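User: Sequence for EH domain-containing protein 1 isoform X2 below. Tokens please.
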Amino acid sequence: MQLVSLAQAGHPVTSDLLNAEVNFENLQPPTLEGLDLLQAKKKRAPKSEPEQNGNPTVQSSVTANWFSSSTSVKKVSLTSVTSIIDGLKKLYIQKLKPLEVAYRFNDFVSPFLTNSDFDAKPMVMLLGQYSTGKTTFIKHLLRTSYPGAHIGPEPTTDRFVVVMNGPDERSIPGNTIAVQADMPFSGLTTFGTAFLSKFECSQMPHPLLEHITFVDTPGVLSGEKQRTQRSYDFTGVTSWFASKCDLILLLFDPHKLDISDEFKRVIASLRGHDDKIRVVLNKADQVDTQQLMRVYGALMWSLGKVLNTPEVSRVYIGSFNDKPINEAATGPVGKELFEKEQDDLLTDLKNIPKKACDRRINEFVKRARAAKIHSYIISHLKKEMPAMIGKAKTQQKLIDNLEDQFVKVQKEHHLPPGDFPNVEHFREVLSGYNIDKFEKLKPKLIQSVDDMLGYDIPELLKNFRNPYD
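Assistant: Structure tokens for EH domain-containing protein 1 isoform X2:
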């Protein structure tokens, strides 16, 4: 739009114009001739009911109308949403990315962000042991099966499946989807071909998928299988998706409440995303009221041992499938409880697009803080290295005593200990680098990020409010 305004103001449109100093405050907005006429024609156009083969089209499902109903989310112009996203893109390239590049943030913490990461639709990830109803849950919301979906009592989903909106029904292999520039999955290439062969994207035209993308995951294994069957870093992949998702649903079955070692590691990898986690006790109509009470208590006890938080997790109880609730087991009180719980969970899902804008900013600020702490750690390690003799010995000593170095950085810069990265993971990555080759602390880059957090982002929020408010 700025380029159009400059062209209409008489400036020659060249590559130099993008870098030239232009007074945008006095620049007139672009004039778009004929737009009023087109809008008037559109308003006058009669609304006819679309037909297929002479028959009216089938009414869309209840879930499909969530985001178009007057009570859920108001209509928002795309320009309002993209203004904030474009502002974040600009701030990332100008102020945050130089800091990430200087201290190799992409190798240690998270790959560099691309435009598709900012433009991606909100995502919901489903995690749980096999046969807890993850694929059935997605099918229940879509009111139809997605391409490549397999449902059964045995471990059926053997891959990560991203269910998203598309022009036609098809499955796209992982290697193809990871290299597409308009998809936010390029960061998954770091997990190698072994993972990408177990990753695919299912596209289908659906009104609900226009607002939300679902991530269906393989069932978390238990026993000996969990040590032998994975050919890729399952915990690392779930952690990557967790950072991109807006909601994480942990599904449990009343008959499978044990939390295996792999599931424990997966839940531990969700650290820092506690606000996104929701626990769902699925298939709850398979037990009677007395058993359900005991199952709920056992689940809360198991989660308390794993989550390590004093707060009580929100657990939704229900039976998320297309079958009617089994009233013979639950009774009329149980049926009413399930309906209320399902409504609460669906309300959570409805609010995802409304909160997506705030979530984007929240994740961006979280990333900026992580990048700052990472730069402090790297520059501190570089400072501890000797100038000439004994570099290899000193490097090994620093890696072995990494916890002590973290404490030193924390005290020197007055940083909260909870914001520091995982010591074991950091040590593992650091052992492959020569610390002496790292950059010293660059105060200008740090100051630039501080200015972004202190002034630029608040200014962006002031000029462009959350369009859904």
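Residues 100 and 293 are 50 Å apart (CA to CA).
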